[in-house]
Amino acid sequence: MKYKYSVDDNNQLMIKPPEKGRPVAASGKFSLGQYNRLIYWLNEPAPWRREYGLAPKIVFKGKWQLNSNYDLELILNEAKDQCKGDRLAIKGEIISTDSDTLVFEIKSIDKQGLSHMQLLKLSGIWQADEHNRLSFAVEKKALPDMLTLEGIWQINQNQQIIYDYEKTNLKRKTKTAHSLIFKGFWQINRSHRLTYILERSSGSRFDFRVQIESPNLYPKTGVVKYRLGIGLIGKKAPGDRIICLYGTWKFSRKLGLVFQMDYGQGQVQSLEFGTELSLTQRDKVTFALKNETGERLGINITFTHKFLKQNEAEAFLRLREVLQRESAIETGIRIPF
């Protein structure tokens, strides 16, 4: 027997049994089962459930998505007790994106007018899609469902990714602003790729397709700039953004380069690079950055002798020793990790 399902403005399940004229509100609460399957636990007496032929627990099969108002929706699949295409739109707010989860807070009001707060914690991984948008792959038994944040993300003062969005309250006709902060740290380990690793995560990371904006850098400025496009819903062209990573350039013990980034609250992370150096002018040395496998990253750091003497005296002395005993400087000197 197939039922028609929907969710009312109080986040209560609406049920329309076959051959019944109007849907009825069923008191209960939502929860998530294995593989993020949506469950509704009926809080109705046994005679009521027998009248409508319902068990205490209703398990739904469908596909998760975020609607245009950032509410959580399940689009139902065809099944013996549910109709394909029915939408269960659960009203609420995303309150957390930590540790490979998306936590959705909902408020429901029962038939007695009592309010209840609940958390639906979807498990999965955060990733970037082909348009550099932030997406959450909801864990499923088969293929994951993709929840995509359609707008443009930015970087806050602590070099963390932040996503701002608005929700509309249809009853009150008001809009409220919300922000999601993705805590993590940056990696530069491939050319034309910029990676953001989420902290306390086993698999969530954003791999963005980018172009280096300023391939030739000087250590005094301490900023690396990338240009990327972020796809926008309803628009043909992506929204271009310049992403700036701020830090301090240091030498490692092996004359590799380290970029130290401050993420606020005393948290400093270092990016370490292999290098290949060459003398461009008498008083300048240029380091081409390389990753762990020896691939060039398209970034060159140029140091003047004056800067090295004043700020990296020890590195300058070691570098001078290397240059004095190297006979083929013009071909470049590889500095290993």
SSE diagram, text form:
Blueprint: E1 4-7, E2 13-16, E3 24-26, E4 28-32, E5 38-42, H1 46-52, E6 57-59, E7 62-66, E8 72-76, E9 87-90, E10 92-96, E11 101-109, E12 115-128, E13 134-138, E14 145-149, E15 154-155, E16 161-169, E17 174-182, E18 184-190, E19 193-198, E20 205-209, E21 211-212, E22 216-217, E23 223-230, E24 239-246, E25 248-251, E26 257-262, E27 268-281, E28 284-290, E29 296-304, H2 305-311, H3 313-325, E30 333-335
Parallel strand pairs: 22-29
Antiparallel strand pairs: 1-2, 2-3, 4-5, 5-6, 7-8, 8-9, 10-11, 11-12, 12-13, 13-14, 15-16, 16-17, 18-19, 19-20, 21-23, 23-24, 25-26, 26-27, 27-28, 27-30, 28-29
> What would you call the structural class?
mainly beta
Helix fraction bin: under 10%
Global mean pLDDT = 88
Subunit arrangement of the protein: single chain
Question: Radius of gyration in whole Å, from Cα?
Answer: 27 Å
| Portion in strands | over 45%
By DSSP (H or I, 4+ residues per run), the number of helices equals: 3
N-end to C-end Cα span: 66 Å
Mass-distribution shape: elongated
Find the count of extended strands (DSSP E, 2+ residues). 30
Q: Return residue spans where pLDDT drops below 50 for at least 5 consecutive residues.
A: 327-337
Protein architecture, described:
The structure is a single chain. Mean pLDDT is 88; it is low at 327-337. The chain has helices at residues 46-52, 305-311, 313-325, and strands at residues 4-7, 13-16, 24-26, 28-32, 38-42, 57-59, 62-66, 72-76, 87-90, 92-96, 101-109, 115-128, 134-138, 145-149, 154-155, 161-169, 174-182, 184-190, 193-198, 205-209, 211-212, 216-217, 223-230, 239-246, 248-251, 257-262, 268-281, 284-290, 296-304, 333-335. The chain has a domain at 248-337. The chain is mainly beta.
